[in-house]
Specification:
The protein contains one helix and eleven strands, in the order αβββββββββββ. The chain is mainly beta and about 160 residues long.
């Protein structure tokens, strides 16, 4: 962000009577906070501070910011085999494949599981939530790594149901 853009931003905030504003763009963080108008005869002092998180890269041309959705860290899933069942995370949290560090995992690829059998634990807000299989069958693939943060609805396991 160059000085011209910063001045334009400050003028806009003054016009709109915005008291506080914060912007992060790449490695630059800008925070603008205006104090309320003083009730006394003296004019209120307004301070503007631009704080770079790290030295910004040298650029010759400034382009307007482009907002792009974050890319998913999950690799694209291969086309699903006909008749496979996917177990999804019911909550946001941290995925654990075993009941405690150093213990063997609850299940691994090739294992046969029964309906209601514990597949993994998802820790959310210091609570350990056991995730159970909702079908009986064979574990085809585990889609997440131990200790990985996971999202609501994220695919955890692929199971080939018993026939």
């Amino acid at each position: 962000m160059n000085q011209k853009e910063l001045r334009e931003l400050i003028e806009f905030l003054k016009e709109q009577d915005i008291a506080e504003f914060e912007l992060e763009r790449g490695d630059v963080k800008v925070r603008i906070k205006r104090s309320p108008p003083a009730s006394s005869a003296t004019a209120a002092e307004t301070r503007y501070v631009a704080v770079p998180a790290v030295p910004p890269p040298v650029a010759t041309e400034v382009s307007p910011p482009v907002v792009q959705p974050k890319a998913s860290k999950e690799p694209p899933a291969p086309p699903p085999e006909e008749g496979l069942h996917t177990v999804h995370s019911p909550i946001v949290g941290t995925f654990y494949e075993s009941p405690s560090p150093g213990s063997p995992p609850f299940v691994k690829a090739g294992d046969t599981v029964e309906l209601g059998q514990v597949l993994c634990i998802v820790e959310a807000m210091k609570l350990m939530n056991e995730i159970e299989s909702d079908v009986a069958g064979e574990i085809v693939e585990k889609l997440v790594n131990n200790g990985q943060p996971i999202e609501y609805g994220q695919n955890l396991f692929v199971i080939r149901p018993k026939k």
